[in-house]
Amino acid sequence: MSTATSQASSSTGERRPHALPENTSDTAPKKGGRIDPLRFLISYNARNLTKVVTEVGRATGAYWIDAAQRIAKPGDAARRSLLWLSAMADRSEPKWHLRNEVALATPFALLRDFTEPEHRDDAVVPTLVLPPQAGHSSTVVDYSPQQSQLAMIRAAGLTRLYALDWRPATTATRKVSITDYLEVIDRSIRRMGGKANLVGDCQGGWLATIYAALHPERVNTLTLAGAPIDFHAGDSVIAASTKLMAGTMGMAPYKALVGAGGGNMPGSAVLSNFISIQPQSEISRQLQLLENIDDPTHVERYRVFEDWFKYTQDIPGAFYLWLVENLFWKNRLIDGTLTVDGRQVDMAAIDCPLLMLAGSTDHITPAPQLFAAAEKVSTPVDDITYRTATAGHLGLFMGRDALRHDWPVLMETVYTHSVPETGKRGGGKASRRRSSVRAVADPRNTPRVPAP
């Protein structure tokens, strides 16, 4: 079940929730309180240990029951074990599935144009997607032919569609800065026509927010999914560990990581950190593979996820150190003290429609970190949308439930702000809704692969 609310003004001038389609909630999200980082981390790791033991016990019991049923075939266990090991080791580079062409190339980012030829002249504001950038490929927004955020956005009527593809950092790009990233966004939007709908996933979300605050005239709508805006809100293991480490040792540990990576933050280190945050997901995924090794559908879904999750790429060192110090540690975006090239990043400059999607079980970016954005922007309350998906962090961007039930509602709202008034009349919205839902495979009766 998902929830969706937007804010409206009451007769007393106070904010109150206003239902969007498929609304199941009548309360607006509230900002979480601050917690002691050490106590939180101890408690969090204790809970994780319990989950790991529970999962191992479950899988062990299932294994012995299965072994007893297969006792007449002594060679079968060896065969299954070999298939299991082979599936875990068989990795490929993730790829884009939708046809696209590179419209702009820089050493650290590519602008990919997913607009189909017959839609290049459509009277709709173009949309630019900023994928996450946390040591993984940008292809998560086009995860598979059956699970593609880009395909869903395009099917919702936003046919002039682009995405930035963050390239792996190299020795030559280790000094790429926040200024460079904002500049490539600006160059992209100007190439797209001068104004765009921005969709920012995770780290792409705070980057989109900073850009929108500095260039509000270029942003038609701002959609944020799983994006940390108030980095210290809610119960977040990343926020707690950063506050504890940086508060004790400053930036030294992070600089050491970058130094060990030759001037870049190793993607392998980021992956290790993700796994350590929720080890039960990693263990469960591998054990479920063993249990279902003879199910080709499960094995294929496992392979697609592992190809993306385990194929890492480095992050430019200068950019990484900047974001850790200014955002994760000192939380300067939400408190209004962030500056870029001498310019203050004031979120109050953002007055376009704001749409936010959080995950109900997101342990990377808890909802309060995202929803805090609504308190800082100047967007009219009727144009602020909250939505909570039944999903974890990655499920927000590539999960079939979120792509079928949550993203269509948000993107159809974006569409209404992106076409001339004449384009909003008639029955177009219903037909676009059906099309956007069909753009993603139905998740019923299919195997699930545990993911963070």
UniProtKB/TrEMBL annotation:
<dbReference type="InterPro" id="IPR051321">
    <property type="entry name" value="PHA/PHB_synthase"/>
</dbReference>
<feature type="region of interest" description="Disordered">
    <location>
        <begin position="418"/>
        <end position="452"/>
    </location>
</feature>
<protein>
    <submittedName>
        <fullName>Poly-beta-hydroxybutyrate polymerase</fullName>
        <ecNumber>2.3.1.-</ecNumber>
    </submittedName>
</protein>
<keyword id="KW-0012">Acyltransferase</keyword>
<dbReference type="InterPro" id="IPR029058">
    <property type="entry name" value="AB_hydrolase_fold"/>
</dbReference>
<feature type="region of interest" description="Disordered">
    <location>
        <begin position="1"/>
        <end position="32"/>
    </location>
</feature>
<dbReference type="Pfam" id="PF11339">
    <property type="entry name" value="DUF3141"/>
</dbReference>
<dbReference type="InterPro" id="IPR024501">
    <property type="entry name" value="DUF3141"/>
</dbReference>
<feature type="compositionally biased region" description="Basic residues">
    <location>
        <begin position="426"/>
        <end position="436"/>
    </location>
</feature>
<keyword id="KW-0808">Transferase</keyword>
<dbReference type="GO" id="GO:0016746">
    <property type="term" value="F:acyltransferase activity"/>
</dbReference>
<feature type="compositionally biased region" description="Low complexity">
    <location>
        <begin position="1"/>
        <end position="12"/>
    </location>
</feature>
